[in-house]
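Review form for a predicted model. The reviewer records the input and the model, then writes brief findings.
Reviewer: anonymous (R2)
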Amino acid sequence: MTALDAEAVREALLTETDLLADLYRDCDPTTPIPTCPGWTLAQLVGHVGGAHRWTATMVTHRSTENIDYATVPDVRRPRDQQAAVEWLRDSARQVITAVDATGAEVPVWTPFAGVRPARWWIRRRLHEATGHRADALLALGRDVVMAPAIAADGLSELLDLIAIGAPWFAAPLDDENTLTLTATDSAAAWSVARSGDTVTWTAVPAAATVTVSGSAVGLYLLALRRISAGDARLTVSGDPKVLDTWLDRTAF
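Model under review:
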């Protein structure tokens, strides 16, 4: 359960963005977001919706280079709260529409290892939405409720990005150290090992220098550095310093 199929990713992008929009409708836009220091809830919503629209523009233009964010049409969040809710919802739909119109396999610029098929962006935008919806819920003192399959896919996608390595991430494991994450609410597992200057991972559980067990959502939030390794929802066994090093070196 560590990967969603293409249709599930499309549906989840819309669902997760809609859930964030629903949250924004009924909350104070000036609410601070502690996990994104300096941001308010309004700024978080503006970031997610604006980046959705930036992505849709790059895909539509089949751009193999970065596009200036400021040149994207309607990239700024409306000041009116209800208008911002609808703007955010539509932003996710623009991503789907752009990929469908352009072609899923058309190469488009990404900040990770150059150009990739346009469909890559749907999954990336999904997990920007999942991570930031979690930020909003945590800021509001609410439980982060997310389908285990979506959280598991978010963790897999994050590990894929970390495995790309430089210039984004220093090697997060020292030589001979390994990390295994085990979901207690599914059969999902992620076993990570050092490989040259970066890491590789498999979905096969393995003995490791440090192992973390918890729900898929808890593991995802830990990997995003949204909760600490000492959180009651997690169990850590083995060398905790290896986990500390991993978290220190994988700040996104």
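Findings: The helical segments are 6-25, 41-60, 81-102, 120-139, 148-164, 216-223, 240-249.
Further findings: The longest strand covers residues 189-195.
Recommendation: see findings above.
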